[in-house]
Amino acid sequence: MLLRFIYVGRISIFAARKKPIFYDEYDFIFIELLNFTKSETELETGLDKWLYALKNMSQLTEIPSGFDEEIFKTLFDTAEYINLTPMERTMYEIRQKIRWDNKNVLDFAIEEAQEKGKRKGLRQGKAEGKKAGMKAGMLEGKKEGKKEGKLEVARILKQEGVSVELIKKSTGLPLAEIEKA
To answer: If you placed Cys at 157, which of 26, 67, 100, 162 could pair as Cys (CB 3.0 to 4.6 Å)?
Structure first.
C-alpha cells in the first residue's frame, strides 16, 4: 500500500473521546514532496513518475524519458500552456480554434461522404435486387408456364383417348398429375 513510502502518509479520523477510528473508510492520504528524493533514473512506478513530475516541473525543459503515457503528455502540454505570455496564449488559442474548426470540417465531410455512400449503395442494391428478382420471377413464370402447357396437352390427349403411359412419356408429367388433368 501507499504507506510503505516515507513521502506518503495516511491520516485517519478518531472520535474525540474514543480511541478507535471514527470511520475506517474515510482517510486522508498526503504526500510530502520534500521527502521524495528519487532521481529520474530511479523511477519505478506510476506514482514515482507523478511525484517526480510535480516536484521538478519548474526545472524541466523537456519531457523526461520514460514519460510516454498520454496522461504525462497532457500534463506537460498544460504546464507549457500555463507558462505562456498573454500574447502567446492568445496566439495558441487561435491556432487551437483553427485546428478544431479544420477537424470539425473534415469530420463533417467524412460523415457526409459516408451517408452519400450508404444512399448510393442502397440504391444500387435495390436496383440489383429488383433486377435479380425480376430475372428469378421470369424464370419461375416460364417454368410454371411450361408446366401449365404440359398439363393442357395432357388434358387434351386424355380427352382424345390417348393412353396415360404415352401422355407420361410425351409430357414428362408424373402419373398423379396426368390423372388430375
So the answer is: 162
